[in-house]
Write a structure and sequence with these properties.
about 30% helix, eight-stranded antiparallel beta sheet, Bactericidal permeability-increasing protein, domain 1, alpha+beta
Length: about 200
């Protein structure tokens, strides 16, 4: 096999260090399995209150068609919302598809930053299903969807900008190589013994 350029090596290493599958797993772990909005205001002049519980589905990551971004992540969320409209309590089921875009940024001296595009309302596709006729009769469905969309966008944006999460999004390749050397992962056979010592097998 012929030698490759340093640029090609860096590209291959980047793809191996942060493949779509690995990034998808990381995003799923960061977001978690579910969330609860608590009480939020909805309806005209915020006269109603709503509480929603969201369950996160299987996160799917793939290569992004946009040349400015490397990976596209789709996060499905199933939300059940209960709304106190003052005269009665009604319920809605909302299916969300949240699209996030990620690029891999090389940083000195030898790190990879997983950079995420800040989410906005255009990154959320929602479908609302009123639970029963009373929910259909109350004309707040569009407002409820907008409130839930805004909550999810804000929740994910704030989560991914937390200091501990930002630290997790940075891959120190040099540190990983140091750990590999220290663990003996690069050694395929016994170490050469020092003078007068017997062979010491290295576990791989």
């Amino acid at each position: 096999m012929g030698a490759i350029s340093a640029a090609d090596f860096a590209t291959n290493m980047l793809a191996a260090a942060a493949s779509p599958d690995r990034v998808g797993v990381m995003v799923a772990q960061l977001i978690g399995d579910s969330f609860d909005t608590g009480s939020i205001r909805v309806g005209p002049a915020g006269l109603g209150t709503a509480q929603a519980v969201g369950v996160v589905g299987q996160v799917v990551a793939s290569h992004c068609d946009d040349p400015d971004w490397d990976i596209e992540v789709l996060v499905p969320v199933a939300i059940h919302a209960r709304v106190d409209a003052g005269i009665r309590v009604v319920a809605y089921d909302v299916d969300l598809a949240v699209r996030a875009r990620i690029r891999l940024v090389l940083e000195p001296p030898c790190s990879v930053l997983i950079d995420l595009k800040e989410l906005c309302a255009d990154d959320v596709l929602s479908t609302i299903d009123p639970c029963g006729m009373p929910s259909r009769l109350i004309g707040w469905m569009r407002n409820i969807t907008a409130v839930v969309d805004d909550y999810v966008v804000t929740f994910i944006n704030e989560l991914l900008q937390r200091d501990d999460i930002v630290a997790m999004r940075r891959i120190d390749v040099a540190e990983l190589l140091d750990r590999a050397w220290e663990s003996g992962a690069f050694v395929s056979g016994p170490l050469r013994p020092a003078s007068g010592e017997s062979d010491i097998p290295v576990a791989i």
